[in-house]
Amino acid sequence: MKSELVLYNTLTREKEQFRPLNPPFVGLYVCGPTVYGDPHLGHARPAITFDLLFRYLKEEGYKVRYVRNITDVGHLQNDSDDGEDKLEVKARLENLEPMEVAQYYTDRYHRAMDELNILPPSIEPRASGHIMEQIELVQEILDKGFAYESNGSVYFDVEKYAAQHDYGQLSGRRIEDMISNTRELDGQSDKHKPLDFALWKKASPEHIMRWKAPWSIGFPGWHLECSAMSVKYLGEEFDIHGGGMDLMFPHHECEIAQNTAASGHGAAHYWMHNNMITIDGQKMGKSLGNFITLDEMFTGKHKMLSQAYSPMVIRFFILQAHYRSTLDFSNEALQAAEKGLARLMTAIETIDKIMPGETSSVDVADLETRCRDAMNDDLNSPMVISALFDWVRIINQLHDGTQTISAEDLDRLRKIVHRFVFDILGLRNDDAAEKNDLVAPLVEMLLGIRQQAKANKDWATSDKIRDELTRIGIEVHDRKDGYDWSLK
């Protein structure tokens, strides 16, 4: 199967022609959330980025096994090897079992993803459900000589690994610089050297989540879970590993080291990283306290929000920027996205009102070519949206009769637009859905009365109906052959 898709490979820092290992099968692994709090806007970007990739690969005829994990154990405070598990901290605060906390926030995450029209992954493994696989991987790394046991904990020996392999290849860091920039240990740590990271941690008496392993009763290190679960479900070598840029170091760098130490080679052939959402140029995230939860975005209940924003506005806002570029949050940018999305959806509804002619004065193939070329160029969703908006103007011209289109081309236009807007970009026309419920027949009845008033030259009644509808959020658009209406 020949692919025209070009992806930026973080590992090589180059755009590369996508060549799956076993076409048409594609193995895709993406780091999912740590479930100890409500999903926020920062969670939406990787979810939408890799949903876009998942959708496009499927549209191109690939059979995709998409694995997105849930981190429910082993992720310690400040991403370190010491301290408390983030999930256990939350459990103590709320006087709950850790798995209750994990289930509650996993359910919240799933609901938010459904609102954003994120397709569910093929497999969604949890770290706590794959302890045996992680223990086996630790033992493999120990057997290969790249790890050591210390007081019941097991650590990865970074300097020993770096003597034979390229530690830092993903993030572009040099081992010499990392060594020189780390402080000596104070003698209180079980680690031999500052760069070493935990594969298995011996549990302290107060630690709740613990399992029996050959070295101690304890729990796995955070980096270990993705190495173990990706290989379990996708094999020792698979196609694409994705996640946020903030995970590149140390998490993904450590993953590569673990896989290479165990098998002699890395697991993923392509590494993809979405960039961050920022607020005033600063990363948005829980650790910085400047995050906005998705529920707050949907309801508008946050001090930084001037209004509520629908899930599709948020999705459209994120898709307007290339996944590798930073995206700065502002109410102005979201309001512009809201208007742009409404304009696009109105144009899509207008397609069904166009009367076909004998011939076409427009080139429908041009839209498909531009959209497909943009997607093949490293998922360039902003260029897809740009091409679609060029056609919003053409669609209006077709509706007004200043351009013509044949019935065959009109059907093709409808299919192209629906494919890229709904199937690939994953947008929904929620406005149209609202129009189809009880509101629609009532509005149509009032506009029918207004049409009769206009025919009778009863302009006062005509204007009153229009003004009252506008007041409650319904815009009326008079046309030569009647009218259209839309929700604001």
Description:
By secondary structure, the chain is of the alpha/beta class. It folds into 3 domains: about 5-275, Rossmann fold; about 280-430, Isoleucyl-tRNA Synthetase, Domain 1 (Orthogonal Bundle); about 435-485, no CATH class. It has helices spanning about 40-60, 85-95, 100-115, 130-145, 160, 175-180, 220-235, 250-265, 295-300, 310-320, 330-350, 365-375, 380-400, 405-425, 430-435, 440-455, 460-470, and strands at about 5-10, 15, 25-30, 65-70, 145-150, 155, 195-200, 210, 215-220, 240-245, 270-275, 275-280, 280-285, 325-330, 475-480, 480-485. The strands form 5 sheets. The chain has a 5-stranded antiparallel beta sheet with strand order 5-6-7-9-8. Strands 4-3-10-11 form a 4-stranded parallel beta sheet, with helices on both faces. It has a 3-stranded mixed beta sheet with strand order 13-12-14, covered by helices on one side. The model has no long low-confidence stretch (mean pLDDT about 90).
